[in-house]
Amino acid sequence: MTLQELATRVSLEFAKTYGRPPRWIAAAPGRVNVIGEHTDYNDGFVLPMAIERYAVLAADKPAGDRNNIQIRDTAEGVEPATIDLAVPVKPGPPKWSNYPRGVLAGCLARGLKPGGLDVLLHSTVPLGGGLSSSAALEVATATLLEAVRQKTGSCRKGPALPDGGT
């Protein structure tokens, strides 16, 4: 399935789940290391490359004035996550939500305040297969949060540019 087909599928699933279309869709690929697993931080050579498997997030502002981020997964049996923005973001249940929580905490520390969101996650990156499914989720989360707050800055280090990039 192409990325465009995945985005369309996730958009339709978001509308079924939340009763309205998403305003934003963000995606990030999984990756494979052709050479060099765990050698990059030991001054070794690595050759990673993106694969055609993706973590895709669709999102919109929630109805009302809710100050939390609700993330649901399209996979069967995955517990949804609610991240309360009224308190400091810390690790919490469900365990998988600590990846987006970490990204969110970094963005909040840099002054990026996305406000409440309804989010739907769909991933085609196999879990536990060495294809960086957690990194894909984190990059998709950062991309989504930057899109949400495009006019006010970036999660990334460095000065924010007028278009929201760095």
User: Per CATH, what is the topology?
Assistant: Ribosomal Protein S5, domain 2
Largest beta-sheet characterization: 5 strands, mixed
Spatial order of strands in the largest sheet: 1-2-5-3-4
Instruction: Report the top-level CATH class.
Output: Alpha Beta
User: What's the tally of helices?
Assistant: 3
Number of strands: 5
Run of helices and strands = HEEEEHEH
Number of discrete domains: 1
Mean pLDDT over the full residue set: 87
Low-confidence stretches: 157-166
What portion of the residues fall into strands of 2 or more residues? 15-25%
Query: How much helix, percentage-wise, in residues?
Result: 25-40%
Tell me which CATH architecture applies here. 2-Layer Sandwich
Distance between the termini: 31 Å
Rg, Å, rounded: 16 Å
> Can you tell me the overall shape?
globular
> Would you tell me the structural class of the helices and strands?
alpha+beta
